[in-house]
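User: For my dataset I need records formatted as: sequence, then structure tokens, nothing else. Please produce one.
Assistant:
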Amino acid sequence: MTDHPIRFLQPLWDLLHAVSLDERRCILCHIPFAPAPSKNLALPIPLGHTAPALPLSRQTLCPSCQTLLQPRKGGYCPLCGDMHALTDTPPTLCGECLSHPPPWEHFRFFGSYSGALKTLMLRGKFGADPAALRLLGHFLALACADLPVPDAIVPVPLHVSRLRERGFNQSQELARPLAERLGIPLMPHLLRRQIATRHQVGLSRDERRANLTSAFAASQEARGKRILLIDDTFTTGTTLRKAAQALLAVGQSNESERVLVDVAVVARTVREPCAFQNTLTLLPETTRSVSVQGEPLPRSCCTLS
């Protein structure tokens, strides 16, 4: 009987589950739910081993919300995460990454910055919800499972004034569960934000680049390391490019001290409508008319807004 002590707990678990005494609230929708017991719980557990733990998502999310938070499997660029409508197609490099490759070697993200994932991220970042941030860090760890093993995990830093204002760095909190899961040291001191920049929200790509000029400085301790750089979201990639370039710069003088950078974010924002559409919107009304065999088409059929 002592060979499988966990089996004695199974009747108690079944009883708690039957009378809903194991209920908890979903951290996304706040509806009470009882986590389904692990299928392996009733199996014999060898002496000296512990029972398998439920995945964090099953512990904290109700079944309905679990279906809303699934990783993106295809239909994106493997270097920047730019997504298109065909989600079942294999990852393919986008035109931007083909013409202007980013400074990192590998890129990973969990899903699109929309719907339930966006709600959870806003709750973690602006609602200072540690449970949400930990779950998002769990999602990040799932996305990074096949990356080369890094020497250090480095979150994109906040300037000290912004850190004082917010009270925490969301990227660092996302990186904690990842570091725990991989058993890799979290080394935020390898990168610092030396300039208090404006918020990036609402800025154009060129404005973002100008805003982040010389914003980051890397420690010489980063030399010779493979760094996994962590941020919460990827919009234009300007922040991550500048941060990666700062890390790469410290190892440029000596090949043996070369720095390698991989990047991972929880969510990738959907790219805005293409420049061609925006250009058509700005054209005069007369130039937006299209004719076929001398007959003008209705304006609603050939204009974009």
